[in-house]
Specification:
The structure holds three protein chains of three kinds. Chain B is mostly helical. Chain B contains 14 helices and two strands; from the N terminus they run ααααααββαααααααα. In chain C, a hairpin with a 5-residue loop joins strand 11 (287-297) and strand 12 (303-313). The chains are: A mainly alpha, B mainly alpha, C alpha/beta. Chains B and C meet through helix 8 and helix 9 of B and helix 10, helix 11 and strand 18 of C.
Chain lengths: 362, 372, 562
């Protein structure tokens, strides 16, 4: 044992690993991981719905941003209209919050419908369509936010507090204590990813969706309405983007800032690619991002002791802004690494990005 | 001559119509906003007041015209940074990051050579910005060519990385004492010389010069032929002995070079690099390129239009109380209508013959992954 | 195509007018209603009448061949039948009842099954998933019943005499088996009118025989079959009746016993056709192109070319025959510099050119006509003139230093358009405005008009009309007689047999035979293509069972499904 410590760096590395285990066992880092992974996972599920049916969706970012804003504003409006009510014991839900979530989801579906129309009916380049959505969403929410200057807030959902009976259960209790003290939207992600996975690979809808994303001509000739299925899937995908938006302003946070999605819609695409276009894989990819974020937060709020800690604190004092920004940049760097490292070896649904033109029509 | 004119009319029809439609929707938004600013009363005259203020702010005086040109200058460069990419089938959304990196390099090098005579200092600082921007475009080019990482996602990630890194560097390392906000040292003689009005700097002339240069590059040189071939049909390019990988890297670097120059113009006319430096001109390049149909002349016209909106927006805010952010909305709406081109053509029976730039309908092709 | 008009056995005198038979061939109508009647079907597209008042009727339990050149209007007619296109005029009757077919699902519901030339299969899905798609067997309202599905597929296979694994992915099946999946797909939907569009285009002669046996069995059980083809001898072999269409019109009907290939050829093309290329003697000289133990990998990293060696002499044509997916594509790409060989050497005119790129090979004297002209050979959105210099754009006189010389490009383009009879209003028109034949002529003009010692031809006449085929074949022979070493790869065995001086048969990445063309037997070559062996009994055994994993690797996956 002593000999290992004599090798340079081994001591500090082991110490740091011990620290990581420590923050996982003793702090809320696992729950924060799931929470921070949620919007990325939801964005990636939106991507699954789109790309499995053969539509590229670069506009997830704009869909999330629009939903975040609409959910936020409608939540405030609902609170003003129906009055402030006492939060329910479950997730601290109020009518205003629930109305806000519904509005966010509808907004996500509406923007998705626009993307579907541009990509499927107009047959615009799908990446251009997505980019247009991103730029328009950023401009429009910024303008309206400036105009409405919301000063209030509809509050936010609260993390789940498991009842004592649940906490006392052996494994289940531990799971809830460690991972599931999160808001309702974050918690729903786990269920949604599993359900979508099963539906995609076991249901009639899933079989048809996969066929349409791979070889739409084949689906068309056996009487599947390619256009309708693509429309339906892209719009349903908007539900996930809407939930991700609601997460930003009604679950994890309770305010709106311009451009607050901060690239999560694009990181979601990296998670999607990482997960090879499967819902559970994409969820795993999102957890990876959540993890990198959560560790960054833990290190900054609760720095390790010992050599690594001294080193980090030294940097923090010398260059506080850079120190912070390095952690802030981690998810983006991780995205680049995943894109560069995984893309070449994973294959997207074959028809992705190609508008479908029926045979015999032009 | 008449045929030429009708071709030009067919090419310009959709962009012009998109602008008109976007301004129309913008007018509705202004009307709605009059509810918020006018205490619940609808002011039907407000859109006209606002647009009149916008136009007179942009073109109504020598000062206005000069600010329009100054605002258009970086947009010509960022527009080319997107448009030249389109020619090779690439969608460079990394203009924003390349602007930051180019501008930052120009600021640091400019400050270092600020004691030299002005022509030397300006040239060196611009060169530094161009090289830094090209290097930052080189990265996604290499990633795309050799790993298949699609440039749309990778350049957006690089935008964020550049922003995080440069803000940190300015705050912690290159900040000078004195000013109340974090900024780098003055660039001294590397400040772009003004030749017209209060702030009409020589960047305007460079922007006018770069348009024919790019046109010549694309249509009169073998490199331009290669770039256009790779964009139109990468398999045929490979068959013809061109190297798509090499061309992707070259084109992305070229895009970065233009964006870097655009950022340098902004910084070298300001005189220093502020920690908070917007990425708006990078993204506006996308609108400019699509409006200009990826053609250098079109890009020049698109840049002047958006430059005018930016130059006129403050008057609009002062005289009509319409937030300057409306410009961002209109920009997005223009894009939206451009994307719906087929529908616009169909509903207005505008013929598309010879006017559809095929390259902007091909950027999704490489999305599915795999290397070239 | 010209090369496929006749079997080598056939010796009938071409050029005899058989038009007299036209009225005498109509036999008495079968009792009961006709399965299908298409009456006066007309379909116009801008600038062209694809179908001009076409009449077609099909009886129950009959194989009815629809014969016509590429572009004659066969596909349009079938798209109308399948609801993929709406006729401008005319009536369709099924079992005597006038119907309007709204789309593929309507066609399927009415008992019409279609096997498209380019298979409509999803490569990454299994056989069962492909067959059931759209008509799924459900365990409940949401989920599939996959066990029941497997059982049904197996039963269906048994009924028609083939053993099929429902769980194997389409991309791992040979082309012949993919076609059977397509037929099963139609039968699963209870089709009683089956349309097969050029079903033998991708099959070996042996596979063709097998599929013919299946079709006869179906017919005997009462299924009506429309068999679309441009191969005369096949039509004569399988059809009960033949309808010939040309330029959108029905030009005649025949029954096989009252007609022959020359008669059909003349009906189909509209003029006296020279069925065999007049290629004369070859006078080969020294070896100029030498391939030694060449190996190459496919895109998935499997070895697709496994030790190919051959010497090609100046003034001869080496034809490479083989079922698609046996490594021909990778071999051609390796020779053309588009794919780096994993080992082995290539010498061109005494110079080692192994692993060189396209430009270096061109400089060494190679010209290459790629198999997919729209993907590789041309940039469709570019003007014809730019396409005519696509492989010389940076060489004098078309460019000096880095500057293009538009004058030089234009004057060469105008000459090429004249010399190669490329039908276009102007050299500055986009290549996409040309017909397929003229597009290929443009590629040929560019590649043939260079100083060349080796000419690599990949599917040079695929999908072309007879006139263009004749033109290109004459150009190839002329290049051979001028001393070029020519390598010809074609999926059309007939074309290989017609043009080649020597024939190599490629099977699983190897040359399993190299024979002199005059002594080659069509059936022997077919057998080699299918099995790699000359022994018929072994071959038959290999051909009727499912593809083994080895064959899967060799077939390179899903050639026809793309």
């Amino acid at each position: 044992m002593e000999a290992i410590y004599a090798v340079p760096f081994v001591g500090p590395v082991l110490e740091f690993l011990g620290y990581l285990v420590g923050i996982f066992a003793t702090t809320s880092t696992p729950a924060i991981t799931l929470s921070l992974a949620a919007p990325i996972a939801l964005g990636a599920l939106c991507g699954v719905m789109n790309e499995r049916s053969g539509i590229v969706n670069i506009g997830i970012e704009g869909m999330m941003l629009t939903s975040a804003f609409v959910g936020f504003i409608v939540g405030i409006w609902a609170q003003q209209t129906f009055g402030v009510s006492a939060p329910s014991p479950i997730f601290g839900a109020t009518p205003a919050l629930l109305i806000g979530v519904v509005a966010a989801v509808l907004a996500g579906m509406a923007v998705s419908a626009l993307h579907a129309w541009l990509s499927i009916t107009v047959r615009a380049d799908q990446i251009i369509s997505g980019t247009v959505i991103n730029i328009t969403a950023l401009g429009l929410t910024g303008y309206l936010n400036r105009l409405l200057k919301p000063t209030e807030s509809a509050g936010s959902f609260q993390p789940f507090v498991p009842p004592q009976a649940l906490v006392d259960l052996p494994i289940v209790g531990w799971l809830f204590r460690m991972f599931l003290q999160v808001g309702p939207i974050s918690m729903s992600v786990v269920v949604l990813a599993i359900v979508l996975q099963v539906l995609l690979f076991r249901s009639r809808w899933g079989l048809r969706t996969r066929a349409v994303g791979e070889q739409p001509e084949a689906a068309d000739t056996v009487g599947i309405d390619v256009i309708a299925l693509r429309y339906r899937n892209v719009i349903i995908g908007g539900i996930f983007a809407g939930l991700a938006g609601a997460w930003l302003t009604l679950d994890f946070g309770s305010s709106f800032q311009n451009g607050m999605t901060a690239g999560r819609g694009f990181i979601a695409l990296a998670a999607l690619i990482f997960g090879r276009w499967t819902p559970l894989g994409a969820f795993a990819g999102a957890l990876l991002f959540g993890l990198s974020d959560a560790i960054g937060i833990a290190i900054r709020s609760n720095p390790p002791t010992g050599a690594v800690g001294d080193f980090l604190i030294g940097i923090q004092q010398a260059a506080p802004s850079l120190y912070n920004n390095v952690f802030g940049a981690l998810p983006y760097l991780l995205t680049l690494i995943i894109l560069a490292g995984v893309v070449g070896r994973s294959i997207a649904p074959a028809a992705v990005g190609k508008p479908y033109v029926k045979e015999g029509s032009s | 001559m008449r045929r030429l004119l009708s071709t030009w009319a067919a090419i310009a029809a959709v962009p012009v119509l998109s602008i008109v439609l976007a301004l129309g929707v913008g007018a509705i938004l202004i009307l709605v906003s009059s509810l918020a600013t006018g205490g619940g009363k609808l002011d039907p005259g407000l859109p006209i007041t606002a647009y009149a203020a916008l136009i007179s702010g942009a073109f109504g005086s020598e000062k206005g015209i000069v600010s329009t040109l100054v605002a258009a200058t970086p947009l010509v460069f960022t527009g080319l940074a997107v448009g030249v990419g389109f020619k090779a089938g690439l969608f460079n959304i990394g203009g924003a990051g390349q602007v930051l990196v180019g501008g930052f390099a120009a600021a640091l090098v400019g400050a270092a050579v600020g004691g030299q005579p002005a022509p030397v200092a300006v040239a060196i600082a611009l060169l530094a910005g161009a090289v830094a921007g090209a290097a930052y475009g080189f990265i996604p080019g290499v990633l795309k060519a050799f790993t298949g990482a699609h440039e749309v996602v990778s350049t957006i990630m690089l935008n964020s990385l550049a922003s995080f890194a440069i803000v940190g560097l300015v705050n912690d390392i290159f900040k000078i004492e004195g000013p109340t906000f974090a900024r780098t040292a003055d660039v001294g003689n590397a400040l772009l010389p003004v030749f017209i009005g209060r702030n009409g700097h020589i960047g305007i002339l460079l922007a006018l010069a770069v348009v024919p240069i790019v046109y010549f590059l694309l249509w009169r040189t073998t490199l331009g032929f290669e770039i256009r071939t790779v964009g139109a049909n990468p398999s045929a390019a490979r068959y013809a002995g061109m190297s798509p990988r090499r061309l992707i890297v070259i084109t992305m670097s070229l895009c970065g070079l233009f964006a870097g120059l655009g950022g340098s113009m902004e910084i070298l006319s300001l005189g220093y690099y502020p920690a908070v430096f917007g990425t708006a001109i990078g993204f506006a390049g996308i609108t400019v390129a699509l409006l200009g149909r990826a053609h250098p002349v079109g890009i020049l016209l698109g840049a002047i239009l958006l430059g005018a909106m930016r130059a006129g927006a403050p008057s609009m805010q002062i005289e009509a109380k319409v937030p300057v952010e409306l410009i961002d909305v209109i920009q997005g709406l223009i894009l939206l209508f451009l994307a719906a081109e087929v529908m616009i053509r169909r509903s207005l029976r505008v013929r598309a013959k010879g006017a559809t730039p095929e390259e902007i309908h091909t950027v999704s092709r490489s999305y599915g992954g795999g290397t070239v | 195509m010209a090369a496929s008009f006749r079997t080598p056995r056939d010796g009938a005198d071409p050029g005899v007018d058989r038009g007299l038979h036209e009225r005498t061939t109509m036999t008495a109508p079968a009792p009961g209603p006709l399965r299908l009647e298409m009456l006066g079907i007309t379909k116009r597209y801008p600038g062209v009448v694809a179908n001009d008042a076409i009449d077609l009727d099909v009886r129950p339990g009959e194989i009815h061949a629809l014969l016509g050149e590429n572009g004659a209007g066969k596909s349009t007619l079938m798209n109308i039948l399948y609801g993929l296109a709406t006729p401008d005029d005319g009536e369709i009757r099924l079992d005597g009842e006038a119907v309007r077919i709204d789309g593929p699902s309507d066609a399927i519901r009415r008992g019409i099954g279609m096997v498209h030339q380019h298979f409509k299969l999803v490569p990454v899905l299994s056989v069962a998933e492909n067959i059931l798609l759209g008509e799924e067997t459900m365990a409940n309202a949401v989920f599939l019943d996959r066990d029941e599905a497997r059982r049904q597929i197996k039963d269906l296979g048994h009924r028609f005499g083939f053993e099929i694994d429902p769980d194997i992915r389409i991309e791992n099946l040979s082309v012949g088996w993919q076609q059977r999946v397509e037929i099963l797909k139609a039968l699963y939907r209870k089709a009683n009118l089956l349309v097969l569009d050029e079903p033998t285009a991708v099959l070996t002669p042996q596979e063709t025989k097998e599929i013919f046996a299946v079709l006869r069995r179906l017919r005997d059980e009462g299924t009506s079959i429309i068999f679309i083809s441009h191969k005369l001898y096949e039509v004569l072999e399988i059809a009960d009746r033949i309808t010939v269409i040309r330029r959108g019109k029905v030009v005649g009907s025949r029954v096989p016993r009252e007609t022959d290939e020359d008669d059909l050829a003349e009906l189909m093309v509209g003029r006296n056709v020279q069925l065999i290329v007049d290629r004369g003697e070859s006078h080969p000289d020294g070896v100029v192109f030498s391939i030694t133990d060449l190996h190459a990998l496919d895109d998935r990293g499997h070895e697709a070319v496994r030790g190919v060696s051959v010497d090609v002499r100046g003034g001869e044509i080496l034809g490479i025959a083989g079922v698609a997916g046996n490594g021909q594509e990778e071999l051609v790409e390796s020779l053309a510099g588009l794919r780096r060989p994993s080992s082995g050497t290539v010498h061109l005119g005494g110079q080692d050119v192994t692993g060189r790129g396209p430009r270096a090979l061109q400089a060494a004297g190679m010209s290459f006509v790629p198999g997919d002209r729209q993907r590789f050979g041309l940039v469709l959105s570019f003007p014809i003139e730019d396409n005519l210099v696509l492989t010389q754009y940076d060489e004098p006189p078309y460019a000096r230093w880095i500057l293009r010389d538009d004058e030089a490009v234009r004057s060469w383009a105008e000459r090429a358009i004249k010399d190669y009879d490329i039908r276009t209003p102007s050299a500055s028109a986009a290549a996409s405005s040309l017909s397929g034949g003229n597009q290929q002529k443009a590629v040929v003009a560019r590649e043939f008009s260079r100083d060349l010692t080796v000419l690599l031809l990949d599917q040079p006449t695929r999908g072309l009309d007879v006139g263009s085929i004749e033109f290109i074949h004459r150009q190839v022979i002329a290049k051979r007689d001028a001393g070029a070493a020519i390598v010809l790869v074609s999926a059309e065995l007939d074309e290989v047999m017609e043009l080649s001086d020597r024939i190599a048969v490629m099977y699983r990445g190897e040359f399993v035979a190299l024979v002199d063309a005059p002594t080659a037997e069509r059936d022997q070559i077919g057998l080699l293509m299918a099995t790699g062996r000359r022994d018929a009994t072994l071959a038959a055994a290999a051909a009727t069972t499912m593809a083994s994993p080895d064959e899967i690797a060799a077939s390179g996956g899903g050639a026809g499904a793309g």
